[in-house]
């Protein structure tokens, strides 16, 4: 693709009945509600404009877009005037030209005339419009009062605000209000004195601004401009690709200048994000060029030794021979691997293929184990498929939204913005979360009910909601009768109706007043389309799978599955969690969620791959680590995951890794796990490879290579090198061939090819003969499993209990500007917002312990101890503390225990009994760990060549 | 830290507790099915050996489950 700006229709799309009119003599038919400006743009007639852009409602302030309409007086603004049947519009007349030129003159007289040296030269709508209206001269001169001396705001690390270039069109203010929903910007003052200001004139960084970039994108001039454009110049080509951070899956135009990325601009046609983004995808991509990246393979005999850089050939041969040696000595099942939800579908598919075909066992697991494995189990059991039921657009038709154990404005920000928009339009919100997340109350959004339950009581609370729905006769009986297994429903209904499961009976346990539970249940059951969105606050519990099933039960009982506006929607953490699970990354499932014992499915793969596959499930990550300490598991290939930092009970993980003979880590950076590795294979970034990611809506989207891999190979090529060194004879020359194989072997992907993706932009699986365009809403006429299955979800309290030694409950989460273990975001200016993890503690609990805001505190659990600084806030209830886990120095997982979900072993990150006490600084463990890590990261300097 | 045997016994017990409302017999059957679907052969044979080996103390439910697992394992 060469560089062209995305077309701007001026005002948003309308959806009414078709209306015909004439524009400059041309017959046009458009939906009622369309503006004249948009109708004209649809037939390639560009009406000059400044304050209008199609991501925002029209505003009508600049008066550039005037038109003449036959039979009407005056010159109405085309952006604010809707079309009408039979209307005859003229967009270019002498009078209009004169009026527009007059408007333009006023703008230009208060604008610096430094176009040639301006960073936006060639990419500025003001400049374009001056040309379009034929401005040749400014009668007012440049001597009058003006704003040319305004002071730049350079506080935000990613963009600059230059008030001298501002034309006060308020596009930025409206973008922040309408698209992002943060309302950080205002127009201060009136008339000539008006100016744009972030919050109370604090500057962008100190304001509420979350640096989403919507205002920058909306700005028609260089008043708001990316710093990278100032530094590198305007782009000369653009490639559409997909964000590699979270499961929202925003698509972007990677705008390039030669081989250099200049900026990432959210793609308007992206169906997951519709042209919006968050700070991470939009700006935090600098890690891809960070000096910490390791670009050469490295090997060492023991983890005490420094790393030795070697050639790719040597590294690959070493890996293959070590793995074969281990298998010869300890058996076929003594090695395994871990796929990454950060990598592409094609890459995860190849890693699991390497393991099943090449290692000859099913010892493959994925980082989804520690986040959404209960979603897979719970939704497969109840609905028949391991995935969310809707597309994101569905939220626009939701009447009641129940958010449980998720914090979309931080974790899934672009979806969070869309949700807020829907809530501003009047949908009702129920939040179930121990913490008062931003959604509970933010500008123009307020939850109807916030149920701040004690961590670990999700199942009891959801069952109590079901109790209300069943006992008060709020069940959608027709739906249940027609769509669900009625026998299972009967058992479930009897179970939840037991008075022991009523809101009153569990009030003391959950800490939520019964009246609030009743009110929330009634609202969800009777408020119209009810949509449930959930996150890791649901899955990362000892009853994670039960909670997912309890959610599915509620949705089925109220008839809220199988239609737009409703459904059960897991908000996936990483960019490709859905995809990595789809691709057969679990030890018991082949691609497409078919059990390894399914001989028909196995036969398909066996035929294609020319081997006999193991019919027994393999080991999960935690069982691999156990087996390692027992001496039966000796080698592992870990692609793109930092299990030492991200998995629970760090001490257990470290012991398991230390007991292995060959740990191979493939990553961008020497991560914490690499401290225990014998081979390091450098990884490539999403900018350096082709492939696909599948987002939380099951949407398969292309990742496109915009630059050569700095390490020499894309990750899929590295897997192929290892496979071939082990004798597998793979011959892929492009990831599209891997996708063809996936489609051939996976019924839900049968209709997916790169051509289809290029033509349609994206598709949501299942894509097959029955649904060649994909499936935005699942289970429409019937559940994938046939009848929806209600499952009795008895509340089983976690074994992690508070007591006198550990009286507080720790729960964990993440923050907008950082991402998971922080390997990427910590290597970007996002550090400006969150440079360290803090422990949120309620004022009462802090006071009882003599802790002041900002003090260092020791956080102890039965598993370990760490230190961090305290943040005193009533966002958390008394008895509950909260922290993020983005920084390796904090090592929050030293604290978490290895209790886990009963069905999937997803770790119970969200409940740990702890004590908090004042402290002087890092714990012994942290000091020892740092020393060990420093020791382990040494790289031997190569001898100079003779 | 738990030993692997202790962990397997704990895992089985946790699964049993989550099926407990179905009654002991059905809970054991559901747990066995779960183990069949999700545990690797090494874990299964360790679990099958536990009822006859000294060491980890097993709850009644876990003992019954592992004994049935033992009896269903192909003779090796
Ligand atoms: S900063 Fe840009 S978008 Fe905002 S008012 Fe000024 S010119 Fe318009
Ligand atoms: S970057 Fe986003 S949050 Fe910040 S002012 Fe602009 S639109 Fe608002
Ligand atoms: S919301 Fe997620 S996918 Fe979208 S830009 Fe942010 S991190 Fe990337
Ligand atoms: S573009 Fe219509 S008034 Fe500004």
From TrEMBL, chain A:
CDD domains cross-referenced by the UniProt entry: fer2, MopB_CT_Fdh-Nap-like, MopB_Formate-Dh-H
PROSITE patterns in the record: 2FE2S_FER_2, 4FE4S_FER_1, 4FE4S_FER_2, 4FE4S_HC3, 4FE4S_MOW_BIS_MGD, MOLYBDOPTERIN_PROK_3
Domain spans labelled 4Fe-4S ferredoxin-type: 157-188, 200-229
Enzyme class: oxidoreductase
Residue stretches making up the 4Fe-4S His(Cys)3-ligated-type domain: 95-134
EC number of this enzyme: 1.17.1.9
InterPro entries assigned: 2Fe-2S_ferredoxin-like_sf, 2Fe-2S_ferredoxin-type, 4Fe4S_Fe-S-bd, 4Fe4S_Fe_S_CS, Asp_de-COase-like_dom_sf, Formate_Dh-H_N, Formate_DH_asu, MoPterin_dinucl-bd_dom
Keywords linked to the UniProt accession: 2Fe-2S, 4Fe-4S, Iron, Iron-sulfur, Metal-binding, Oxidoreductase, Repeat
Highest taxon in the source lineage: Bacteria
Domain (4Fe-4S Mo/W bis-MGD-type): residue spans on this chain: 236-292
An example Gene Ontology molecular-function term: formate dehydrogenase (NAD+) activity
Residues covered by region (Disordered): 917-946
Biased composition (Basic and acidic residues): 935-946
Domain 2Fe-2S ferredoxin-type: 17-95
SMART domains, per database record: Molybdop_Fe4S4 (SM00926), NADH-G_4Fe-4S_3 (SM00929)
Family: In the C-terminal section; belongs to the prokaryotic molybdopterin-containing oxidoreductase family. Belongs to the complex I 75 kDa subunit family.
NCBIfam families: Fdh-alpha (TIGR01591)
UniProt name for this protein: Formate dehydrogenase subunit alpha
The organism of origin for this protein: Novosphingobium mangrovi (ex Huang et al. 2023)
TrEMBL record, chain B:
InterPro entries attached to this UniProt entry: Formate_DH_dsu
Superkingdom classification of source: Bacteria
Pfam families in UniProt: FdsD
Protein name per its UniProtKB record: Formate dehydrogenase subunit delta
Organism encoding this protein: Novosphingobium mangrovi
């Amino acid at each position: 693709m060469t560089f062209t700006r995305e077309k701007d229709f001026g005002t948003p799309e309308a959806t009414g009945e078709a209306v015909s009119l004439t524009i400059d003599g041309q017959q046009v038919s458009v939906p009622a509600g369309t503006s004249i400006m948009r109708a004209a743009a649809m037939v390639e007639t560009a009406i000059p404009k400044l304050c209008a852009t199609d991501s925002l409602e029209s505003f009508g302030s600049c008066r550039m877009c005037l038109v003449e309409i036959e039979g009407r007086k005056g010159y109405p603004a085309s952006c604010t005037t809707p079309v009408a049947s039979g209307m005859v519009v003229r967009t270019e007349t002498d009078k209009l030209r004169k009026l527009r030129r007059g408007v333009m003159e006023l703008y230009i007289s208060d604008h610096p005339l430094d176009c040639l040296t301006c960073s936006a030269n060639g990419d500025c709508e003001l400049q374009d419009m001056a040309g379009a209206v034929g401005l040749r001269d400014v009668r007012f001169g440049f001597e009058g009062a003006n704003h040319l001396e305004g002071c730049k705001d350079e506080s935000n690390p990613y963009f600059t605000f230059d008030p001298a270039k501002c034309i006060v069109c308020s596009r930025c203010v409206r973008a922040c209000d309408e698209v992002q929903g943060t309302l950080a910007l205002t127009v201060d003052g009136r008339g000539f004195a008006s100016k744009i200001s972030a919050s109370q004139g604090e500057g962008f960084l100190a304001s509420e601004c979350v640096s989403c970039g919507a205002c920058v994108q909306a700005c028609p001039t260089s008043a708001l401009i990316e710093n990278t454009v100032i530094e590198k110049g305007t782009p000369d080509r653009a490639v559409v690709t997909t964000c590699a951070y979270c499961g929202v899956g925003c698509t972007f135009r990677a705008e390039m200048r030669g081989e250099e990325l200049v900026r990432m601009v959210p793609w308007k046609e992206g169906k997951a994000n519709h042209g919006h983004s968050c700070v991470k995808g939009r700006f935090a991509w600098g890690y891809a060029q960070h000096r910490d990246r390791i670009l050469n393979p490295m090997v060492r005999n023991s983890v005490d030794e420094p790393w030795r850089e070697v050639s790719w050939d040597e590294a690959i041969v070493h890996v293959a021979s070590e793995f074969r040696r281990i298998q010869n000595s300890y058996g076929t099942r003594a090695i395994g691997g871990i796929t990454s939800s950060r990598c592409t579908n094609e890459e995860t598919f190849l890693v699991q293929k390497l393991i099943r075909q090449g290692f000859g066992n099913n010892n493959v697991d994925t980082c989804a184990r520690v986040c959404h494995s209960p979603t897979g189990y719970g939704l497969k059991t109840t609905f028949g498929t391991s995935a969310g039921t809707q597309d994101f657009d569905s939220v626009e038709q939701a009447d009641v939204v129940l958010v449980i154990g998720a914090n979309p404005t931080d974790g899934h920000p672009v979806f969070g913005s869309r949700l807020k928009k829907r809530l501003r339009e009047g949908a009702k919100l129920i939040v179930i979360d121990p913490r008062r997340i931003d959604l509970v109350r933010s500008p123009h959004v307020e939850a109807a009910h916030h149920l701040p339950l004690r961590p670990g009581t999700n199942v009891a609370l959801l069952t109590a909601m079901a109790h209300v729905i069943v006992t008060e006769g709020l069940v959608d009986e027709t739906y249940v009768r027609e769509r669900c297994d009625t026998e299972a429903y009967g058992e479930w209904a009897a179970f939840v109706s037991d008075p022991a499961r009523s809101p009153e009976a569990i009030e003391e346990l959950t800490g939520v007043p019964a009246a609030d539970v009743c009110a929330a249940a009634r609202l969800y059951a009777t408020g119209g389309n009810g949509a449930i969105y959930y996150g890791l606050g649901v899955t990362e519990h000892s009853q994670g799978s039960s909670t997912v099933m309890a959610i599915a039960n509620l949705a089925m009982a109220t008839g809220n599955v199988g239609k737009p506006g409703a459904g059960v929607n897991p908000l996936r953490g990483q960019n490709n969690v859905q995809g990595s699970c789809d691709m057969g990354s679990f030890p018991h499932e082949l691609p497409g969620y078919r059990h390894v014992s399914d001989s028909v499915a196995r036969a398909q793969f066996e035929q294609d791959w020319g081997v006999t596959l193991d019919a027994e499930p393999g080991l999960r990550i935690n069982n691999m680590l156990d087996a390692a300490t027992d001496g039966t598991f000796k080698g592992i290939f870990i692609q793109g995951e930092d299990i030492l930092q991200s998995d629970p009970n760090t001490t257990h993980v470290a012991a398991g890794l230390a007991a292995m003979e060959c740990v191979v880590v493939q990553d961008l950076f020497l991560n914490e796990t690499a401290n225990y590795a014998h081979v390091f294979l450098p990884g490539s970034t999403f900018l350096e490879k082709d492939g696909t990611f599948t987002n939380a809506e099951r949407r398969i989207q292309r990742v496109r290579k915009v630059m050569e891999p700095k390490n020499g190979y894309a990750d899929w090529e590295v897997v192929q090198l290892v496979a071939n060194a082990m004798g597998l004879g793979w011959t892929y020359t492009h990831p599209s061939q891997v996708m063809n194989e996936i489609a051939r072997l996976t019924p839900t992907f049968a209709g997916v090819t790169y051509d289809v993706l290029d033509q349609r932009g994206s598709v949501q699986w299942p894509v097959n003969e029955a649904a060649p365009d994909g499936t935005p809403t699942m289970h429409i006429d019937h559940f994938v499993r046939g009848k929806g299955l209600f499952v009795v979800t008895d509340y089983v309290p976690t074994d992690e209990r508070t007591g006198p030694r550990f009286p507080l409950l720790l729960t964990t989460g993440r923050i907008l500007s950082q991402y998971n273990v922080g390997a990427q975001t910590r290597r970007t200016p996002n550090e400006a917002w969150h440079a360290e993890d803090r422990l949120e503690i309620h004022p009462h609990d802090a006071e009882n312990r003599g802790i002041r805001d900002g003090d260092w505190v020791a956080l102890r659990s039965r598993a370990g101890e760490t230190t961090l600084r305290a943040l005193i806030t009533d966002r958390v209830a008394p008895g509950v503390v909260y922290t993020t886990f983005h920084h390796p120095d904090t090592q929050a997982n030293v604290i978490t225990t290895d209790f886990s979900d009963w069905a999937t072993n997803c770790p119970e990150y969200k409940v740990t009994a702890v004590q908090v006490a004042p402290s002087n600084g890092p714990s012994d463990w942290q000091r020892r760990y740092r020393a060990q890590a420093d020791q382990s990261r040494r790289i031997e300097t190569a001898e100079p060549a003779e | 830290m738990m030993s692997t045997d202790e962990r397997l016994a704990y895992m089985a017990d946790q699964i049993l507790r989550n099926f407990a409302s179905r009654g002991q017999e059905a809970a054991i059957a559901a747990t066995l099915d779960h183990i069949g679907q999700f545990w690797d052969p090494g874990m299964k044979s360790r679990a099958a050996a536990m009822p006859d080996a000294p060491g980890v103390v097993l709850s009644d439910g876990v003992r019954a489950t592992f004994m049935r697992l033992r009896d269903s394992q192909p003779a090796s």
